[in-house]
Amino acid sequence: MHNGKNNRLLLILTIATLAIAGFYILYQLNFDILFYQLPSRVNRVVTMLIVGIAIAVSTVIFQTITKNRILTPSIMGLDSVYLFIQTIIVFIVGTSSPLLTNDFVNYLVSMLGLVVFTVLVFKYLFKLTGSHVFLLLLIGIILGTFFNSLSTFMQMLINPDDFLILQNSMFASFNAINDSLIWITGAIVLLMLIIVLRDFHSLDVIALGRDHAINLGINYDRKVSQLLLIIAVLVSVSTALVGPIMFLGLLVVNLAHEMFKTFKHRYLLLGSTLLAVITLLLGQMLTQYVFNQAVEISVIINLVGGVYFIILMLKESRR
């Protein structure tokens, strides 16, 4: 009975996603520039789908491992590392360097930097901390604060004109993204998604906790280590593609929990992904048609997500 209700919810969310995506693509379409405008809008929708999948799936898995609905992968300091990479490029080689001006080179440098950082943190520190997830999180918070402080220090030393150019990297944007980067990121996210979906039932068992999972036959440490690496890759490629969106994962995954009222990950993964795509589409439409590109989409999502985060904290404190 409960599964039937959740299936209907998934169907409604799927129809809503398709309807909003169709509206976004067709609204105020100018037939004089159709061959430019239509592919551009379709590419944005595909990018939102890729980023929505990456952020939603990584956050669902991260909250399952940590058993905490307030934590997201951004707490590991990935956003700070991304900003540090962009800042150190400007600080050392300047804003005219291909490392910053060439989209493909900048994407590769950012993605490799984030993946190397997260592999070092997740894989090796996970072993060093004796597989204690919360000790790993604490180290991640410290490293994130460290890189954020370094970035702020360097930003105070650079030329104000260079800082204005660097500022564009601080906010996520779906405008003018290189087509080849969309498909490269899409292929990586699809590969990670296939790995997760091949054994997504194990997430239901891991959600019960380490002891229960081991008793039920899960190789807990190995499985969690593998999942942390998948989270690292998903967050790294999505951040390198559009920039950091801090509160999107927190917002959509908690909304999915409230809507579906279940522990089953087949509903949480799909529901969170659909909610993420809807949120990105609505945010992009607000940015384009209400604020006339004066406000970045990440500002709108972080504002809504930040308010929701405060509401969650107040609800938790009353329990």
Distance between the termini: 29 Å
How many helix segments? 14
Q: Rg, please?
A: 20 Å
Mean pLDDT: 83
Order of helices and strands: HHHHHHHHHHHHHH
Point out poorly predicted stretches. none
Strand content: under 5%
Q: Oligomer, anyone?
A: single chain
Shape: globular
| Computed structural class | mainly alpha
Helix content: over 70%
Fold and architecture overview:
The protein is an all-alpha fold and 319 residues long. The protein has helices at 2-26, 34-66, 78-93, 98-101, 103-128, 133-157, 160-167, 179-198, 201-206, 210-215, 220-242, 248-260, 265-290, 297-318. It is found in: Cell membrane.
Secondary structure topology:
Blueprint: H1 2-26, H2 34-66, H3 78-93, H4 98-101, H5 103-128, H6 133-157, H7 160-167, H8 179-198, H9 201-206, H10 210-215, H11 220-242, H12 248-260, H13 265-290, H14 297-318
Helix pairs in contact: 1-2, 1-13, 2-8, 2-11, 2-12, 2-13, 3-5, 3-6, 5-6, 5-11, 8-11, 12-13, 13-14
List key phrases describing it.
319 residues, mainly alpha, 14 helices, 79% helix, globular
Task: Compose a concise summary of this entry.
Helices cover about 80% and strands about 0% of the residues.
